Amino acid sequence: MENRVCFIKSKREVKRGGWNRGSRSHIDSSGIDWSGHYIQVSAYQSGTEYFPKNRKREFWNLMPEYGKRAWDWEEKKYCGEVTAYLSLIFILLITFIGGIMESASVQLAKNYRRTDTNRAMECVFAEYQKELLDKYDIFALDGSYETGQYTEKNVTERLEYYGEGRLEHEVMKIQFLTDKGCRSFLNQVSAYMKHKYGLDAMKDLLGMTSEWGRQEDRAQDYVEEENSWHESMDGLLKENEAELPREDNPIDHIGQLKKTPLLTLVMPKGKAISEKRVNSREMLEVRERKQGYGNFSEAEEKNGNLSSLLFGEYLLEHFSKFTDTEYTGGTLDYELEYILAGKDSDKENLEYIVRKLLLFRFVPNYVYIQTDREMKAEAETAALALCTLLAVPAITEAAAQGILLAWAYGESIMDIRSLLKGSRVPLVKSKESWQLQFSKLLTLGTKEDVSEGRDDENGLGYSEYLRMLLFLANKEATALRTLGVIEQNMRKVYGQAYFRADFCISGMEIGSVCSLRRGVRYQFKTYYAYQ
After folding, report:
1. What is the structure's pLDDT at 104?
2. pLDDT tens digits along 419-472
3. CA distances (Å), 200 to each of 142, 205, 301, in order?
4. What are the residues whose beta carbons fall under 8 Å from the beta carbon of 141, sequence distance 6 or more?
């Protein structure tokens, strides 16, 4: 039951006995508090929440001053349920807004911590090895910090220095230049060369790489063919109890030349061979290396022909070779030759390269001589004269083939002389580019031999042939030797006695822990790597 209360100015405004109590009127006039100046209007169970229309006029007669201004009972009702409902909604809304503000505040604090750590990581990696970048265009962070001793504490202390002391850091992953076949080093080289030259500059060379590979395969086939010829020739001579004369015998003469030091046959006149050598136990390729940990496969780049070519171009630009007029003054003078050969001395490395080039040149020379009728006729004539006393056609035929092999080898010697002198040699020979005449084959390597090889303007120089060898070489081995040369040069030439390539950090991921307000602990990871 609800009570309606109406305030009045004085008792005169209400007429006593306006309705009969017996008629169950909605206004109990006897309940008027004349001193309190109000009327209590009771809503009985038989009544409704408002006056019936036929009773409104009587109520207005009781309250003439208020009249229709009092209340419109049909349109205005004051109920407590609405007020309580709105209060609950308001509390929930304030709680929701407060929760969002708190969550945003915590997230903002997390972002600040991550930003601080990212800034600290960038500052640490900005302390890269300056000389390494200036001389070799490689980014790396010296993990020893010029002490020669690597510890992770060196890195974490620098992070704390650049960041806030409230953060705790732990190295989760770390990668050095020498890890996983020097993968990060090779990726940097590839990115640098692409940026410098672009991909279009390599298109012509890319079209030639397949031919380089086939030529290397054919070289091994011709070595086997030559070995098979020697076995066949020895078998024929033994079977017929015969022996080829040694005088005026190009086969025997070339056989003797193969037993002599190769460099004495091909060195340009007036050019001395470097006597520099290294202690192999100190070289990066041999000694124990610091290893990183963690999987950095997402940062690896697929290595193909393009990256091999780019790596070769990088080596040709940054390292010295035999034909250079000036050397870096490093531990070795013939740096490219060491990268390919891995021997202890300049002399051994140069001899290794010369033998590789000799075999590389033998293939096209032998291929061409097989197609030249005049040269084959000369070889057959010489073989017939050599085997006249034997009178065995099979031996004569085998001797002719042996003379062609010896002649192609002699031409290869002339090619190497040209290359070491700084001249050019065509990749495929022709009648015009052939250098060694048959009449001079027997004097090759003697005092009468004064030819140094000629220059062919359409040919390739020593650097171009090294480019082929670098492309065909094992990339991981050459990359490790490259870092070994860099390490030795940094120590000896650039005064960085503490420098070690396996202490050079190329990438790192750290785990950080920090405390926020109200006991909230936030853990996150931060990754940075040179690209």
Report:
1. 85
2. 999 999 998 899 999 999 998 999 998 888 888 888 998 899 999 999 999 999
3. 35, 10, 19
4. 124, 125, 127, 128, 129, 504, 505, 506
Strand 168-176 versus strand 3-7 pairing type = unpaired
pLDDT tens across 31-61, in order?
A: 444 444 444 444 443 444 445 555 555 555 5
Query: Residue 52 class from Cβ within 10 Å (0-12 exposed, 13-18 middle, 19+ buried)?
Result: exposed
Domain boundary assignment for the chain: 3-69, 87-182+505-529, 199-290+302-499
Q: How far apart are CA 340 and CA 353, in angstroms?
A: 8
Contact 529, 175 (CB under 8 A): yes
End-to-end CA distance of the chain: 83
- What integer pLDDT is reported at residue 54 of this predicted model? 55
Q: Which pLDDT score, from 0 to 100, does residue 426 have?
A: 92
DSSP codes joined into one string, 211-265:
HHHHHHHHHHHHHHHHHHHHHHHHHHHHHTT----STT-HHHHHHHHHHS-HHHH
Buried b (16+ CB within 10 A) or exposed e, 137-150: bbbbbbbbbeeeeb
Residue 408's pLDDT is: 94
At how many degrees (to 10) do helices 209-239 and 305-318 cross?
90
Q: What is the 3-state secondary structure (H, E, C) of 312-346?
A: HHHHHHHCCCCCCCCCCCCCCCCHHHHHHHCCCEH
Pinpoint the alpha helices (H) of 126-178.
130-136, 152-162
Low-confidence ranges of the chain (pLDDT < 70): 1-81, 164-165, 297-303, 389, 391
Instruction: Look up the pTM and report it.
Output: 0.78
**Among 13, 102, 112, 12, which Cα is nearest to 59's?**
13
Which ranges of 370-392 would DSSP assign to H, the alpha helix? 373-386
Per-residue tokens: 411? 């031409």
Q: Which residue has the tokens 């190009």?
A: 250
Report the distance separating Cα 181 and Cα 477, nearest Å: 8
Hey, what are 482's tokens? 């490259």
Question: Could you give the CA distance from residue 391 to residue 399 in angstroms, rounded to a whole number?
Answer: 12
What is the distance of C-alpha 434 from the center of its chain? 45
Helix, strand, coil tally for the chain in percent (to 5): 55, 10, 35
Cβ distance 413 to 425 under 8 Å? no
